[in-house]
């Protein structure tokens, strides 16, 4: 089964840099600080990744080329066709004050850098209460860790309220469980504490569906 990364964009995670020139430069230390949070945690599903997207549509800004540069060295930047930056977790790059230089394919494209929370390796096989509860708590922990002590502990009221997870399926779907509310192919799973050790599976009305995207369900 093709397991897709699942993504949520949260502006709270870091500064967004508008870029409209042919080339733009971003300091590596901002990436390193967030990757360090991930490395120190114990996350099976949750990740934080970095994307270059269109300001208006949030669609990927295609990358022509890029590199990671220090005072003495440079190396090619690795990225995907969806403009995801595949950056190494490298203490030496942080110490050497490395910068990331990116050239969009379209120099007139109005783009921005976006930090995202996402989970990997979460598929229909994981549609049971225990796995969804774990994903929900990993998202909560990662958001809190990335927000820092001052915000998460002293100003916790600034954080969005996370009620569960929101799943996008490949087609319209319905579930009988009252804690799941679906609208076409999008379903909100209201996660409660009694899901933690439950292996109850969720059976959909469609046998052949796939998960396209899973994000934290944030209550406004």
Task: Detail the topology: elements first, then pairings.
Blueprint: E1 6-9, E2 18-19, E3 24-27, H1 28-40, E4 46-54, E5 63-69, E6 74-76, E7 84-85, H2 91-95, E8 99-104, E9 111-119, H3 129-154, E10 161-169, E11 180-183, E12 186-190, E13 211-219
Antiparallel strand pairs: 1-9, 2-9, 3-8, 4-7, 4-9, 5-6, 5-8, 10-12, 10-13, 11-12
Q: Quick recap of the structure?
A:
By secondary structure, the protein is an alpha+beta fold. It is 20% helix and 33% strand.
pLDDT < 50 runs, ≥5 residues:
1-21, 149-157
Average residue pLDDT: 83
Largest beta-sheet characterization: 5 strands, antiparallel
Shape: globular
Strand segment count:
13
Named CATH topology of the largest domain: Jelly Rolls
Q: How far apart are the first and last residues' alpha carbons, in Å?
A: 34 Å
> What's the Cα radius of gyration?
19 Å
Q: Number of helix segments?
A: 3
Description:
Helix content is 20%, strand content 33%. The longest helix has 26 residues, at 129-154. Strands 1, 2, 4, 7 and 9 form a 5-stranded antiparallel sheet that branches. It has a 4-stranded antiparallel sheet with strand order 3-8-5-6. Strands 11-12-10-13 form a 4-stranded antiparallel sheet, with helices on one face. By secondary structure, the protein is of the alpha+beta class. A hairpin with a 2-residue loop joins β11 and β12 (186-190). The chain has 2 domains: 6-119, Sandwich (Jelly Rolls); 124-219, no CATH class. The protein has helices at 28-40, 91-95, 129-154, and strands at 6-9, 18-19, 24-27, 46-54, 63-69, 74-76, 84-85, 99-104, 111-119, 161-169, 180-183, 186-190, 211-219.
């Amino acid at each position: 089964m093709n397991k897709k990364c699942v993504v949520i964009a949260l502006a709270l995670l870091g500064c967004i840099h508008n870029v409209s020139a042919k080339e733009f430069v971003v300091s590596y230390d901002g990436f390193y600080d967030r990757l360090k949070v991930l490395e120190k945690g114990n996350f099976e599903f949750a990740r934080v990744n970095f994307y270059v997207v269109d300001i208006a549509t949030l669609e990927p800004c295609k990358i022509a080329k890029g590199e990671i540069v220090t005072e003495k060295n440079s190396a090619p930047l690795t990225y995907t066709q969806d403009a995801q930056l595949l950056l190494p977790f490298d203490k030496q790059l942080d110490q050497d004050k490395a910068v990331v230089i990116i050239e969009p394919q379209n120099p007139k494209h109005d783009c921005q850098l976006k930090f995202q929370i996402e989970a990997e390796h979460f598929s229909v096989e994981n549609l049971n209460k225990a796995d969804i509860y774990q994903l929900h708590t990993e998202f909560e922990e990662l958001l809190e860790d990335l927000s820092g002590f001052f915000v998460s502990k002293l100003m916790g009221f600034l954080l969005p309220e996370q009620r569960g997870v929101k799943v996008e399926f490949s087609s319209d779907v319905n579930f009988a469980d009252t804690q799941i509310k679906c609208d076409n192919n999008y379903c909100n799973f209201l996660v409660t504490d009694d899901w933690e050790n439950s292996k109850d599976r969720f059976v959909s009305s469609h046998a052949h569906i796939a998960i396209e995207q899973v994000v934290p369900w944030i209550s406004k």
